[in-house]
Amino acid sequence: MKSEQKTADVSFESLLRIFTIPEGPDSTLTKIDEELSRNLNKFLKEHIVAEEKPLREIEKDFSNASIPEQPEFVSDHTQHLLDTLVSHSVHTSAPSFIGHMTSALPYFLMPLSKIMIALNQNLVKIETSKAFTPLERQVLGMLHRLIYSQDDSFYGQWMHSANHSLGAFCSGGTIANITALWVARNNALRAQGDFKGVEKEGLFKAMKHYGYEGLAVLVSERGHYSLKKAADVLGIGQEGLVAVKTDNNNRICPQALQEKIVELKAQRIKPFAVIGVAGTTETGSIDPLTQIAQICQEEECHFHVDAAWGGATLMSNNYRHLLDGVELADSVTIDAHKQLYIPMGAGMVLFKQPDAMKSIEHHAQYILRKGSKDLGSHTLEGSRSGMAMLVYAAMHIISRPGYELLIDQSIEKAKFFANHIEQQADFELVSEPELCLLTYRYVPQSIQEAFTQATESQTEKLNELLNELTMFIQKRQRETGKSFVSRTRLNPERLHHLNTIVFRVVLANPLTSCDILGSVLKEQREIAKQAPKLMAKIEKLAEQIRHS
Amino acid sequence: MKSEQKTADVSFESLLRIFTIPEGPDSTLTKIDEELSRNLNKFLKEHIVAEEKPLREIEKDFSNASIPEQPEFVSDHTQHLLDTLVSHSVHTSAPSFIGHMTSALPYFLMPLSKIMIALNQNLVKIETSKAFTPLERQVLGMLHRLIYSQDDSFYGQWMHSANHSLGAFCSGGTIANITALWVARNNALRAQGDFKGVEKEGLFKAMKHYGYEGLAVLVSERGHYSLKKAADVLGIGQEGLVAVKTDNNNRICPQALQEKIVELKAQRIKPFAVIGVAGTTETGSIDPLTQIAQICQEEECHFHVDAAWGGATLMSNNYRHLLDGVELADSVTIDAHKQLYIPMGAGMVLFKQPDAMKSIEHHAQYILRKGSKDLGSHTLEGSRSGMAMLVYAAMHIISRPGYELLIDQSIEKAKFFANHIEQQADFELVSEPELCLLTYRYVPQSIQEAFTQATESQTEKLNELLNELTMFIQKRQRETGKSFVSRTRLNPERLHHLNTIVFRVVLANPLTSCDILGSVLKEQREIAKQAPKLMAKIEKLAEQIRHS
């Protein structure tokens, strides 16, 4: 509040000042702005993942629930943020941060983000967004075309049509998936005869009207955890999210899917949607979309594709075939803040049919009036920022061939790394990369041999110990802060479907070099030595197995 | 993609460059950054609301659904954005933009926003947010304390507890309200005996288990439109959102509420939540919260307060009494992007009980593991940005007394404006401001007299014509772009509950002077003259009424 003055009182004059644009390059705020940029650039350049400080220690800096009674100078508070917050945040842009889908950003988006923040548009309605509304509609059109490849006349007719919508821009993939299932549910339980539709009368009456005993959404056992949340919110219940068996490559088995549907129908449970995953979160696998589409068509199910992470692959003419069949989906989720390299908060759901979203359309008196082009009449969220602008800018500045290069290099790097892991005697690749995601674990060579000779119960025991080791290595590596891989739990067939903890790597950052990948393995090998007791226990068991 | 080079090809080297921090103050990107700041400052300083250009014209600039095959220079694209987007966006920060809750921002938030964008943290989990997680928990604690005034030991115990949550940070009030009702629904239909809870088995089985014929959420007829959306999504159905009669001040009638509850129960419909509105969107009215709380306690309903807009009033020791009873609510929605002057995308829902959100808790294998402090286990959204940082910074830089001044001045300005409107012979105040929102319309004096002598059908006819006039004035004023008020439809008792279109004004911007308010009225009076045919029609009818 005191960017331009030196006293520390609260006055209406000083408040007016904070709402006034600073004049000239010598203003205090301009100086703070420049200083902040330098500081952030310094932070972003550091090739570490995080400072080593336990969370409990950091929490001490954020333990006061009282709203301050005394204002702080902008400069002082900025310094405070740099010391307590920035220095203990995660370097998601570090080339050695390869554990999650959050990655480095193209640097040009930093200055461009100012447009979004400074203009403070609200995309829920034209009256607070004007040109941002057609811009967002164009972005949705571009993504729609990327998936469905309709012709110019299609987009000319629907992209800016007040009563239609090619999709919705959301805060993220979870809201996008919920929106898709909301639309699917409402279309499945639509008005009929005296029944006014589930949106009006609710689920209980809908079920009674249609004579169903339950509703189901089917997805592979590798589906994203947020789908359970969606099933809960939408009143279907988590048990209504039916997990379908996957093959050895973590892809849904079409036959198992078909059988499940028959089984559900026999119980008067309506399978109203099937979700194909194009890039599972844990293994990066892509379901056989064309086959799912065929089953959905026969069974009259809504076919949704969760391509939150993998959808960006469509930008590459060399790899888009991996998602063949996505164009048959009724709806598709894509997160621009994943492989389209946009800052956090840019999810999208696209619908094949421009009138699909009719079933969730809503209006109000003061905005979203019928016939208006207000985007809010087709979104789950209300007030929303102009994030679409950053997608628009990146599409123009990077262009499709630029994205193609980014996608291609990440897939090829993942293949390189998988190969590199397989060449190591003491590492084991658990899931092959289809895109740029793979899983593996550390298994000393002597242990690998023991596995081949172990009885069932010995295998279980050995696997348990290895899980402990993997967890230890992952945690210690994260805490050390030089590099970061994540971990998850899989049930690989090769290990008799035992719970198996694995390292999980996502190779999105183009600055991640092969050297860095090599040193991640080296570091893990070294960390294993820091658990001598556990290692001795493992070796001892391996020894027993070999001699039994 | 070409910020640092002059050729126009796509190469992997140029892609690496866009992910690399620019060096020094002479880099092209630094220059673009500075140029952009100057341009935005110029735009923000213009005291107009929007450039006069029809939406259809603007759409032409955003009509290409193809993703470009050719990259653009950052500098060229920035210029393109300034020409086509920025110049045709809405000046939400203009002091004459008084039509919606989106307002000017404290300027210091612009540079601070860089921290959020550049660090690109993902708040769903500690591993991608570290210090941002305790920061967000502190912000939720601060808002919780602002509402519920618990003591230090309460916040010491719960604020950072892994298995508890004082609330959820959301993209906006709609998601906040949905979250509150989701929690309320799941708590009302919790596990019991063999029944595993609505979250697991879904709504249909829950209703059968509990023997209900329907579910209901009660709210005044002035409740926000998003609540209908919430009722739809949650499977309750829009008809399950039961509108309760309001008094002449647009506040819910407690007796009518009580009666409705009895009526619903008699039909075996479970009223599981009542929503009190603290600042209705259309009239800014505050429901009698203490009375609602008492009814909720007796009826064992979840009591939610939608204070998305009005909640910030709690910052003022002079006016927080207007929200008396809010501390009795089980949950409260507050949007920081409304009267807390934070950029778009900062909604929050707070829960009185730290374990209230247990009923929507969810976990996954690779994140949100049990016992982790990952925020994502209690949010509807998944990946989320570090917006909480901006709330934190504003709380410290503005401080509570600073916010108090902002709130007080806006309420007092609204009182001044209401008074000013009443002094005009040709304007009519329709709803008094409780906070900084009021509604009014333009009614030439001779027409006002006619109203007093009109028969019922004449009143209806006259009112219809005045509605047309109000709509004409509002649209023309918006299109002219000098100032902006919104419009809505009310049913005031004084007008026999006829549909009445009114101007709606929200006085949030501290730079909005009394002079500006005066000229808004003057402009509206002038615009009325631009509809001579309509005016003649109105005068003629008034004449008839006077002589009948």
TrEMBL record, chains A, B:
Source taxon at top rank: Bacteria
User: A Pfam family this protein belongs to?
Assistant: Pyridoxal_deC
Listed GO CC annotations: cytoplasm
The protein's UniProt keywords, in alphabetical order, are: Decarboxylase, Lyase, Pyridoxal phosphate
Query: What cofactor does this chain's UniProt record say it requires?
Result: pyridoxal 5'-phosphate
What GO terms in the biological process aspect are recorded for it?
carboxylic acid metabolic process
Q: Which GO terms describe its molecular function?
A: carboxy-lyase activity; pyridoxal phosphate binding
What the entry lists under InterPro entries is as follows:
Asp_decarboxylase_pyridox, PyrdxlP-dep_de-COase, PyrdxlP-dep_Trfase, PyrdxlP-dep_Trfase_major, PyrdxlP-dep_Trfase_small
The N6-(pyridoxal phosphate)lysine modification is found at: 338
Q: Does the keyword Isomerase apply?
A: no
Task: Return the similarity comment.
Answer: Belongs to the group II decarboxylase family.
Name of this protein: Putative pyridoxal-dependent aspartate 1-decarboxylase
Natural source organism: Vibrio aquaticus
- From the UniProt record, report the name of the gene that encodes this protein: panP
